[in-house]
Amino acid sequence: MKFKFSSKYLLLTILIFLVEVLIATVLKDNFFIRAYLGDVIVVMLLYTFVKSFLIIDETKLILGILVFSCLIEFAQYFKIADKLGFQPGSLMYIVIGNSFSWIDILCYGVGCLILYIFTKFKSKNEDN
What we know:
By secondary structure, this protein is mainly alpha-helical. The chain has one domain (2-127). Helix content is 75%, strand content 3%. It has helices at residues 7-25, 31-51, 58-77, 80-83, 91-96, 102-127; strands spanning 2-3, 54-55. A two-stranded antiparallel sheet has the order 1-2. It is globular.
């Protein structure tokens, strides 16, 4: 792992973040997009954010993001946001989340699988 700033990944991070904000605010009434697509995309947001500042093995990063996402989801089972004293509706309460779901874990897995396939496809094309 090595520190190196990447404006390309930072711009992608900002773009994905704006999509997540759009999902949370404008498309909040569309259940499928809010409940599933947002969780698939959030792992991509984490990936591009880390890649904005680090050169790191992509497979290890994707696996780390999946583990991190699952840990956060399991923390929701134990109502960690409430235990940390975050008020419902506050930014941190929303970021951490407040309800455990196996479907969310599946969505994180799907997002990580898409990332993995994309990175393998990208590296194969760079080799040619």
